[in-house]
Amino acid sequence: MAERAGSTLRPGGGRVRGPVDVPRLAAFEVLKAVRVDDAYANLVLPAVIAHFNLEARDAAFTTELASGTLRWRGTYDAVLSACVDRPLSKVEAKVLDALRLGTHQLLAMRVPTHAAISTTVDLVRATGNQGAAGFANAVLRKVAAHDLDAWVARVAPDPTSLRYPEVALSHPAWVVDELRKAVGPDQLLALLAADNVAPEVTLVARPGRATREELPGEPTPYSPYGVTLTGGSPAAVPAVAEGRAGVQDEGSQLVALALARAEVPAEGSDGDGGRWVDLCAGPGGKAALLAALAAERGASLLAVERAPHRARLVARSLADLRGTGGFAGIVVADGRRPPLTPGTADRVLVDAPCTGLGALRRRPESRWRRRPDDLLELVLLQRALLASAVDLLRPGGVVVYATCSPVLAETSGVVTSLLENRSDVVLEDVGALLPEVPDAAGPLPGTLQLWPHRHGTDAMFVALLRRSP
Q1: What is residue 108's three-state secondary structure?
Q2: β-pairing verdict for 20-21 and 3-4
Q3: Cα dihedral 216→222→225→227 (10° resolution)
Q4: Candidates 83, 280, 354, 404; catalytic one
Q5: Rounded Cα distance, 313 and 325, in Å
Q6: pLDDT digits (tens, 9 = 90+) for 363-372
Q7: Does the global pTM surpass 0.90?
Q8: Which end of the chain, N or C, is surrounded by fewer C-beta atoms within 10 Å?
């Protein structure tokens, strides 16, 4: 493992003094970015690894250390609380970050005890002070006294208690409660366990631009366009580098496929293949697949995205499709009030902003970032976006409403609210469009709910609604 003495330049400026293990410092910087800047670890990690110029072995260590620490934070905080003589809220935030990193090494990585403790103490000393280093040393020696199973048995001894999933499987109590309502008590622990397994990288071949056969990996079981990458970097795959393929979870591929497979009557269509709209297009993965599918039908996709920086990501994702006829352009606008003519769209996708509690395996920090109070604001936004999408549809047109959350308020609650308030919309069976996906009945008849523990995808919810005359 690489180590540098003297001063080391940190990504945000400034230096650390004294000996410090650079891969561990890199993981520390990722945790800081997540905590201070609300960054996503999977987006920050490549930049931090590049800043410290880590080789493959050290980069893998940093990735596991940062991601694993974020994923198991709830468990480690329960352990640390038993080893600290004060509430964790009274521990300096950067010292607590280091203690969590040290605890992950002690309880979940094959790092010798002395190395885990000494390098963490060095990290605290280099980024904090000598007193904090002594405190960290004492705490981590207490952590090292037991293995993970023994600690869980000590801090959550009753497997039938409500606290057990929170501690043993590292989810906040309110998230456990919402997921229990969505999946049921019998499958709750399996779902929480699946949230703690880092997902494999899935690629998508954009139809008409690439074929699945030219992508390295195993074909995905449900999407005809996906493969599970068996090794290496996606950026090293020529089709990905050229924009003809991309990285996309299989569940997201199925959302786009459902919209493309829905029957839409030709009468009244504007153009040969019709007008398709992605109402919340950022960062562009689903839009790129939809535009490729639209091009094959002689249709065109218009992407709508409110945030300018996310609109730029959409433009990057769809750059290869410019001039193909399948991509009509990008509009930077609020999907609740898009500057589009009502009643002119054949197909609309609403991949709504949500709590993201269905994608915790790839974004583990979301479970600690979200709060119960976020739900109401998100649900109101989701209802408004879905109503706006219906207004864009011509009679006979369809909208797919999707969330990467299984929380009932964001899924069946939003769809039910629309159906109760509009007489010109009917809910259709989206499962019939994806017959290859088993055991995926959603909370409302006709809706579909994917699960990481059943399907190996993010927990995507999908509903298909049609505007009647």
Answers
A1: helix
A2: antiparallel
A3: -10
A4: 404
A5: 20
A6: 999 999 999 9
A7: yes
A8: C
Q: How many CB atoms lie within 10 A of CB 169?
A: 21
Termini Cα distance of the chain:
67
Per CATH, the number for 249-467 is: 3.40.50.150
Residues 6+ apart with CB under 8 A from 382: 350, 352, 353, 354, 403, 410, 414
Q: Which amino acid is at 43?
A: L
Residues 6+ apart with CB under 8 A from 127: 16, 25, 28, 94, 98
Q: Which residues pair with 128 in a beta bridge?
A: none
Q: What is the pLDDT of residue 128?
A: 76
Query: For 34-71, how does the pLDDT look when each residue is reduced to its tens digit (9 = 90+)?
Result: 999 999 998 899 999 999 999 999 999 999 999 999 99
Q: Whole-angstrom Cα distance, residue 69 to residue 74?
A: 9
Tokens of 386: 């879905």
Residues 429 and 446 sit within 8 Å (Cβ to Cβ): yes
In the residue annotation, 280 being an active-site residue is answered as no
In the chain, CATH 1.10.940.10 sits at 3-145
Give yes or no for residue 5 having a pLDDT over 50. no
Q: How far apart are the C-alpha atoms of 142 and 81, rounded to whole Å?
A: 11
Query: 329: which strand partners?
Result: 302
Rounded percentage of the chain residues whose pLDDT exceeds 90: 88
Classify 105 as helix, strand or coil: helix
What DSSP state is assigned to residue 161? S
Q: Please determine, for residue 373, whether its predicted confidence score (pLDDT) is greater than 50.
A: yes
Q: Which residue spans of the chain are classified as CATH 3.40.50.150?
A: 249-467
Q: Is 73 within 8 Å of 170 (Cβ atoms)?
A: yes
CATH superfamily of 3-145: NusB-like (1.10.940.10)
CA-nearest of 247, 378, 357 to 313 is 247
Question: What mean pLDDT comes out for the span 273-290?
Answer: 94
Q: Can you give the pLDDT at residue 259? A: 98
State the DSSP code for 243: T
Pairing relation of β-strands 345-351 and 275-278?
parallel
